[in-house]
Amino acid sequence: MESNAVLLESKSSPINLLNEMHQLRLLGHLCDVTVSVEYQGVRAEFVAHKAVLAATSKFFKEVFLNEKGMDGPRTNVFLNEVQVADFASFLEFVYTAKVEVEEDRVQRMLEIAEKLKCLDLSETCFQLKKQMLESVLLELQNFSESQNSEEESSTQPSILLESNAAAVAEADQADCPLDPPDSPADRPSNRVSPEVPATKPKEKT
């Protein structure tokens, strides 16, 4: 009777593998490649593992697969126009899947990711730039809304004052007419006064 197959899967193994490779690189153990970077006269060398670089960067994969032979215990790779700080951040990312950089360096990290053909870093930079852009747009929207609300609040008092003034004027006119009669006798009437004859008598010839 055949038994059913079961899956043995470790969730922590990929993280542990990266952490161990990172520690080996920091200690310089089992490193088989030296990467020299230079930018505007500033130069530095970094030791790493071919397998890690080849697995995370198509650029390094092509370099290592096309090399004719070893020129010593380690392979040397030279990179021009790459800043030292940027490549150090690149190495930290490919060995740990995360790196902390300043906001103004995100674009540079995207450029080095494209130069070294590191898809994971490119996608990470794109997502971060998208979040930063959305954050800026949200701040602009909130600022615009606050400006509009301030303008509305500044115009409302004058409108209220005008409406109040109009109401007071109407009330004054209702209570105090322009030409009030002095007494009931002075008010106009349709009756003819007895002192004033209705018709003028004809003169005798």
UniProtKB/TrEMBL annotation:
GO MF assignments: DNA-binding transcription factor activity, RNA polymerase II-specific; RNA polymerase II cis-regulatory region sequence-specific DNA binding
InterPro entries: BTB/POZ_dom, SKP1/BTB/POZ_sf, ZnFinger_BTB_dom_contain
Cited PROSITE patterns: BTB
Region described as Disordered: 145-205
Top-rank lineage group of the source organism: Eukaryota
Gene3D superfamilies, A to Z: Potassium Channel Kv1.1, Chain A
Domain BTB: 31-103
PANTHER family named in the record: AGAP004733-PA, ZINC FINGER PROTEIN 37-LIKE
Protein name, UniProt field: GZF1 protein
The encoding gene: Gzf1_0
